[in-house]
Amino acid sequence: MFLKALTAAVSLSGLTQQALAKQPNILFVLTDDQDLHMHSLDYMPLLQKYLVKEGTLFLKHFCTVAICCPSRVNLWTGRAAHNTNVTDVWPPYGGYPKVVSQGINDNYLPTWLQDAGYNTYYSGKLWNAHSVDNYNAPYASGFNGSDFLLDPYTYDYLNAYMTRNGAPPASYIGQYSPDITAAKAATFLDEALTHKDRPWFVVHAPVAPHSNFQLKGVQESDAPRYADRHAHLFKDYKIPRTENFNPEKQGGVSWIKNLPRLNQTVIDYSDEFQRSRLRALQAVDESLEQLIQKIENAGELDNTYIFYTTDNGYHISQYRFHPGKECGFDTDINIPLIVRGPGIPAGRISTAVTAHTDLASTILSLAGVTRDDFDGIPIPLNAKEERNGRHDHVTIEFWGLGIPEGKWGNYGDENMEDGLGFEAHAAGNNTYKGLRIVSEEYSLYYSVWCTNETELYDVKNDPHQLRNLLSDEHVSSASKFTIAGRPLKHILPRLDALVLVLKSCKGKTCTQPWKVLHPDSEVESLIDSLKPRFDTFYHSQPKVSFSKCERGYIKESEGPLEAKQYTSDAFDTIIEPALQKQGSARSFQYRGQLGWWT
């Protein structure tokens, strides 16, 4: 009976009877701030050997909130940030205290896997604001074995403090943090492999390639530290000089639009900054081989899924940015995801649209467990599943500051200050709601900022997202932009209505938002919604807006929260009166088209 349930839940072609004899093992490697668009994966030869060539690379994978703690909560719970209410890295809106107060410490993926019979282990960074002072208040739940990096030393590569299985924090001063967490992950894997009768879930979450941050005393950041054995690497590397690299004509809105161009001193520093990031990733690359070989030597590789991803992306010099994240451009939200395991094609590149919101449900499905409270759905792990179709959108959201990193970073007001010392250099008003939507016909990013500025990029024809079609500078491009023959003036209300649904979505409404807008029809995509008979309905929708720029999720400041539905009542009260004003002949024509609906 269990075998049938697992087969149905996983539904992967090519699984052997031996692999299905017990629940599969799962190794999850989670880096910190790793980019996709500066091609960091290309500089990891062992990752290429063991994962890219032996698994599937998901090129259209996105985080939904481009900062670590909210993104990790999204990943480990399968719920959108507006539903977890963890929207920052520090209290009061985020961090470990917020995770605890929201009940997440006892209700997320590792606890669910333990309930499903798994032994669970974790080495590295779990949450921000998980510190030497609160590591036991309460203890982090969900793991048979754990060794957590602790603030304020988490990002200090040569001065780590960690707590093993709840013991008082131990200092590792002078030792290289990614090597320490890798060694501890290997020890946990050895332990897991001794329990032949139980499946296991092992997470390695190194701090690399995050900036080297000192959070104790004078707060400052610089390029990540790398191990001495990697100091000789990548000396000639330069950040790709793409169109959005320190552009002469800037994209973006709000504070981004007015950023000054970077001078040569900053550009040279940024190139070296990224070299340091690539060097820091070499320790992670080496640990991958060590962990995978352990699994293979134990005879468990054919029954093990390996996930490799990061919490959010990263930018350096694109859009005139100093090093950092927290923005809605693809540099920050389009991130690496590679999966290897039973039934997953080797060397395949998937273009399915997936998000961190989907990973908890994916892993539970592999374990033979189903839940009905996710905001995402399992990702398609082979071509057959991908052909079955899935949604083409990702909810993008952010609250708070845009914080520059590195010694030259400064966006902010020098008169502003907070307890961490970052706010004086950060950009305020960096709160926005967005939508990334990708199909064969279109690729778009649309967002509404808390300042009520809007931006729309035709990523298919503007892959570096520099020409905001809603700005005065690009009126000509906007006038030529169409989807399915429909102009921007009709496309935009559909996108706005979609964001209106997604910014408050929960459960299936996050993956099936068109059913919220069209509960009685077969509209399932942007193309379907663009039929002219829906024009008046969409133009009548409340618009996404903010009444105030907040640092966290404050519903009262986020404008309208519910969209109107296209039903017979909507026809009688909205569309029909509008059509009557245009003349009885036109009213009759539309009623004829919608006769099935009235």
From TrEMBL:
Return the PROSITE patterns for the record: SULFATASE_1
InterPro entries, per the entry: Alkaline_phosphatase_core_sf, Arylsulfatase, Sulfatase_CS, Sulfatase_N
**Assigned keywords, A-Z:** Glycoprotein, Hydrolase, Signal
Instruction: Report the Gene3D superfamilies cross-referenced here.
Output: Alkaline Phosphatase, subunit A
Residue numbers bearing the 3-oxoalanine (Cys) modification = C68
One MF annotation (Gene Ontology) recorded for this entry: arylsulfatase activity
Q: Where is the signal peptide?
A: 1-21
PTM text:
The conversion to 3-oxoalanine (also known as C-formylglycine, FGly), of a serine or cysteine residue in prokaryotes and of a cysteine residue in eukaryotes, is critical for catalytic activity.
Q: Which domain of life is it from?
A: Eukaryota
Q: What class of enzyme is it?
A: hydrolase
Q: Say yes or no: keyword Signal present.
A: yes
Catalysed reaction, written as an equation: an aryl sulfate + H2O = a phenol + sulfate + H(+)
Where would I find the Sulfatase N-terminal domain in this sequence? 24-369
Does the keyword Lipoprotein belong to this entry?
no
Task: State the Gene Ontology BP annotations.
Answer: phenol-containing compound metabolic process
Q: What is its EC number?
A: 3.1.6.1
Record-stated family: Belongs to the sulfatase family.
- PANTHER family membership: N-ACETYLGLUCOSAMINE-6-SULFATASE FAMILY MEMBER, SD21168P
Q: What is this protein called?
A: Arylsulfatase
Its lineage reads: Eukaryota, Fungi, Dikarya, Ascomycota, Pezizomycotina
